[in-house]
Structure formats: structure tokens, C-alpha cells
Specification:
CATH topology of the largest domain: Rossmann fold
Structural class: alpha/beta
CATH superfamily of the largest domain: P-loop containing nucleotide triphosphate hydrolases
CATH class of the largest domain: Alpha Beta
Helix content: 25-40%
Number of domains: 3
Radius of gyration: 29 Å
Strand order of the largest sheet: 2-1-11-10-9-3-8-7-4-6-5
Strand content: 15-25%
Number of helices: 19
Distance between the termini: 36 Å
Mean pLDDT: 82
Largest sheet: 11 strands, mixed
CATH architecture of the largest domain: 3-Layer(aba) Sandwich
Oligomer: single chain
């Protein structure tokens, strides 16, 4: 599967891509002065990767809330909820793999830091079964991981800094990939910035920031002046997910924009000085008529927002036809089971898939299903784990009657042993030679011959198989419950 997205173009007009899978493993740091185009870069990254990976956006200025208008994001307005509710939401988004925007706009700095720390810690502490890959974007990261103490209490600063450190230092094993943006590297805690392996450096003017940016990009100090000359929206990129050598790029356009006023010049109002003076200093009415304001929308209840997180509406529904009675015509419903079978076979065609963790495999499965225009992922993680194990054992469609006895014989074995047992059972049914250690290891998810031998010994102790070896060293394995045996190999 192609996990690359186009982020912009270089000086020669060639496309510059970011490998999202590599980015998830190596993290990203974006730096640039105010007005350099950091938010535009993050928005481009989020838009282009929205269909590839779950996204969590810590948004202190409310700039990214408009993504929810075009993509499948749930906006959490932090000011409407208490700390316990924010913590619950942080845990549930990992369980349900919802892309969310944590809007901190209405909070003061101290409350923003506390809320972000609570949310990130809840994501970090999620159960192992919920460690799905997620891209965690933190804008204005220097606010949440300050290099020095400021006006906020030390306890708040330590909590926020600890959460950011966990995200950047220990988050990778939990599927969390930090992508942080800051105006000044000097204001960002060094232990947070140092964990990123990919860098996108925009325009900056202070010598200390240029020197640190040049060091991160592997440039000589005399080349640091190049960073000062960058135009708005232009960045220098380096890292395993971007380029092995520093590359200059112009970030591409975005489909959405922030809700803010224009920065362009506007014509001044045409009015005589006397008229302006009369408007400014006119006598106030004794009882001015009350100004009619549009009522603010009621905040979404925490329970309703959690329901949205658990079952977000898909951004793109599969195209279906509706008959006169309002029902979807059967001929236009996607054959979900056929799509599942095709996707599993495509995944098995990649020899490395047998050795990847379940969370990463499930992410791949989810993306492939969406590419087949399914409105939602048809299998939960536990069911996917079972179906993928069956597919590795050669059983793509477990509903076929011919597999009933084999599946019954495998019921008492641990889930991770189902695939190698099914390979052996299929060979016995077909009268084929016994699968070799390499094939069984691939089904079991290991390259260790020792683990394969211990696996077979365990299945034999459980009475699931009987191993025979002739004087020539050829092995055959029998399945007592089926009364069948493989050919010697």
C-alpha cells in the first residue's frame, strides 16, 4: 500500500512526498516564526493523510476546527467539559479510532496546559489492545512543553511537560506519533524536540533559533542565513520520512482554511472627518435599544459527544441506489464478505505482513476497506485478528462447510496458534506434504526455528497433533480428531 502523500514541490517543481508510515515511527518537528506558514503546513499534512491514519489535533487557537466540515473529525470544545469527561474522551478515541480536534481556544493558558496534559495522558495510558497508530499534532508546542518556567504554577508546567515528553519519547510503542510545531526552538524543551527525526524548518530571524535549526538540519553555521531568506510557506525538510538530505519546498494548497479575518490590506472607509467625529462622539441615548445577538449554540453534552466518538459518521458514503420504497437496492449493496476476502488476500501477498503487530495490520486493513468504498470498517480488532489468522492458515471464507471440522478441531488452541494448526490440517485433508518450519513460522509470526519446534511440541502435548519422523528424518504430522495425516516431508 502506498503510504506517501504529496506535501509540496521543490525548487525544480518536482513533488515532495512524506511517507506517513515512516513518519509514524520517527515523529516530526515544525519550526517557523509567526506568519511563516506553519499552520498551513500542518493543515496540508492533515488533509492529505486524513484517509490514511487516525488524527488527534491539540489546537490552542481553534484554527483547525474547520477540518470537521470536510473530513471525518469530531470537534471537542474543551471549555464545555470537566477534567473527568476530557479524560474519558481521551481514552475512548483510542478505543474507537476517531479523529478528533481538541479545541482549547476559550481556555486560559493554565487551563489549556492542564486540559492537554489530561487528554494526552489518557491516550497514553490506554489498554494495549487499543494501541492503534495515530498522528498526534500539537500546534504551538512551546506552550505545552516550555523550556523554562513561566507564569503558570510549577505543578501545571510539570504535568504538561511530562505529557508531551511521554508523547515524543515513549509514544511510538503505543502507536502515538507526535507532530509538533513551534514558533521558536529556543522556547521548546530540548528533550521534547530531540526525539523528532523529521524536521521542517520555516523562516526565522533570531540567531539562536537559526543556529539550532541549522544544527538539526545538518547545515554549517554559515548556511544558516538561508533559513532567514525563506519565503512564507517555504520550508527546509530533512528526515527519513521526507529526504535524506536537506530539501527546500513550497507547501501545496489546502482545501480548508482557518476561521479568521483576512491579512490583506483593505481600502480605508471614505468619510469626511466631520462625519467620523460625529459618529465617534455622538451623544449616547439614555436607554439604548438592546442589541440583538444570535443565541450561541448549546454545548454538546459529554454523553452525546462520546457517542459521536464511538460512531462518527463517515466522510464519504459508498454510492448506493434507492428504490421507490426508500430501501437500498440489493444489487447496489457492496459485497462486504467478498471485499474482506480480497483485502485479506492482498495483505497476505506481502510476505512481511506475517511479522507485523496486530494494530498496524488492522490499520492497513481499515485503509484498504475504505479504498474499496466501504462506509465503515467491517470488522472490529478481535474479529479481524481471528479472520487474519484463518487467512494465514489458508481459510479465507470460514463459512464454507468443508472447513467446519478443521475449525472445530482448532477451537481449544490459543488464538495465535490457529494459523499454523490450520496449515497442517489443510495439508492433511489434501494429502499434501507437511508444511516446513519456515511456512509454519510465517503463520505463527516468527522467524525463529526454535519457537516453531516449541510450538509443535505444545500442540502435541495438547493432543491436537501427533508428530512422526522416519529414519530418513522426514516428518509427518497427524490430526487425531480428523483421523488424517500429512505426507512425510
Amino acid at each position: 500500500m502506498n503510504a506517501g502523500i504529496e506535501i509540496g514541490r521543490d525548487d525544480t517543481g518536482q513533488s515532495v512526498h512524506i511517507n506517513i508510515e515512516e513518519l509514524l515511527a520517527t515523529r516530526l518537528l515544525v519550526q517557523g516564526n509567526s506568519g511563516s506558514g506553519k499552520s498551513h503546513l500542518l493543515r496540508r499534512l492533515l488533509e492529505e493523510s486524513a484517509h490514511l491514519v487516525q488524527q488527534v489535533i491539540i489546537d490552542p487557537e481553534g484554527d483547525f476546527a474547520t477540518l470537521a466540515d470536510a473530513y471525518n473529525h469530531v470537534v471537542i470544545d474543551a471549555g464545555d467539559y470537566n477534567e473527568r469527561e476530557i479524560e474519558t474522551m481521551g481514552a475512548r478515541i483510542r478505543e474507537h479510532r476517531a479523529s478528533i480536534i481538541l479545541n482549547l481556544e476559550v481556555l486560559e493558558l493554565e487551563a489549556q496546559m492542564t486540559c492537554a496534559a489530561t487528554f494526552l495522558n489518557a491516550m497514553f495510558d490506554a489498554p494495549r489492545d487499543h494501541w492503534y497508530p495515530a498522528l498526534v499534532v500539537v500546534d504551538e508546542a512551546q506552550m505545552f512543553a516550555p523550556a523554562v518556567s513561566g507564569d503558570v504554577p510549577d505543578a501545571v508546567r510539570r504535568a504538561s511537560l511530562g505529557a508531551m515528553t511521554n508523547l515524543m519519547c515513549r509514544g511510538r510503542k503505543r502507536g502515538l506519533a507526535g507532530a509538533i510545531a513551534t514558533q521558536r526552538l529556543a522556547k521548546l524543551a530540548k528533550n521534547v524536540a530531540a526525539e523528532a527525526s523529521n524536521f521542517l524548518m520555516g523562516r526565522t530571524f533570531l540567531d539562536i533559533d537559526m543556529a539550532r535549526a541549522a544544527d538539526l538540519l545538518g547545515m554549517e553555521r554559515r548556511q544558516a542565513e538561508r533559513i532567514r531568506d525563506l519565503e512564507r510557506g517555504c520550508f527546509l525538510g530533512l528526515g527519513p520520512a521526507i529526504s535524506r538530505r536537506p530539501i527546500s519546498m513550497k507547501i501545496g494548497p489546502t482545501k480548508t482554511s482557518a476561521r479568521m479575518g483576512t491579512h490583506s490590506l483593505l481600502p480605508m472607509p471614505e468619510a469626511e472627518p466631520e462625519n467620523l467625529r460625529s459618529m465617534l462622539f455622538a451623544e449616547m441615548e439614555t436607554d439604548p435599544a438592546p442589541v440583538q445577538y444570535e443565541p450561541e449554540p448549546e454545548p454538546v453534552a459529554a454523553e452525546e459527544l462520546m457517542r459521536q466518538i464511538a460512531s462518527p459518521e463517515p466522510a464519504i458514503e459508498a454510492a448506493t441506489a434507492i428504490d421507490d420504497e426508500g430501501d437500498v437496492e440489493a444489487s447496489d449493496r457492496p459485497d462486504v464478505e467478498a471485499i474482506i476476502a480480497d483485502v485479506l488476500q492482498e495483505m497476505l501477498a506481502d510476505t512481511n505482513s506475517a511479522y507485523q503487530p496486530d494494530a498496524l495490520l488492522y490499520q492497513d486493513f481499515s485503509v484498504r476497506c475504505r479504498m474499496q468504498q466501504l462506509a465503515k470498517v467491517p470488522l472490529e480488532l478481535a474479529e479481524f485478528r481471528r479472520r487474519f489468522a484463518l487467512a494465514k492458515g489458508g481459510i479465507v471464507d470460514p463459512t464454507e462447510p468443508r472447513w467446519a471440522e478443521i475449525l472445530k478441531a482448532a477451537e481449544h488452541l490459543p488464538e495465535d496458534m490457529a494459523a499454523p494448526f490450520l496449515q497442517i490440517a489443510r495439508a492433511a485433508m489434501e494429502g499434501s506434504p507437511c508444511p516446513d518450519d519456515e511456512a509454519l513460522g510465517r503463520a505463527y509470526g516468527t522467524r525463529s526455528p526454535g519457537r516453531v519446534r516449541r510450538l509443535i511440541e505444545y500442540m502435541e502435548k495438547q493432543g491436537a497433533v501427533v508428530v512422526r519422523a522416519d529414519f530418513g528424518g522426514r516428518r509427518s504430522i497427524g490430526i487425531p480428531q480428523l483421523g488424517l495425516s500429512t505426507e512425510a516431508e
